Amino acid sequence: MDNEGVATPTWQQRSEEQQHVLYAAATAALLPDLLALWEPALDWDQRLAHVPRLANAIIDLQRSGLIELYQASNTATESVLVEAEAVPALAHDPAHWMTDEGPTILVELALTDAAAPTAEIRVPCRTSRPGPIPPEPNHKTTSDTRH
Fold this sequence. Notes:
By secondary structure, the chain is an alpha+beta fold.
């Protein structure tokens, strides 16, 4: 239960998007890391189509007080806390996730003290993910290769 007497969802009750965001926050991941975790088999251009659903999960978890976002202009500058009112615009901007030159700013996800214990956060598993991508025709796998 939270401070207002509302039951906090368990890990299993959270959406796949929320599970991925919480895991990313527990590991202090950047937005591109979260996107790669969400759809590792896709190219970056294809991954960007998933930004809105992950951004919505970020916003929900930030509003619930479970995560915070920190931003820095590059790896040499110190990151600063993103103000709550700036989170939606920042999270929904695909340029902060990835561009041809990399993300326009670095945005790190972090758990707050109010987040569920880290022991409850697990590596998320996509239940809706399709099976492995089959090899292209005429593509030799290691089992096809003769030594």
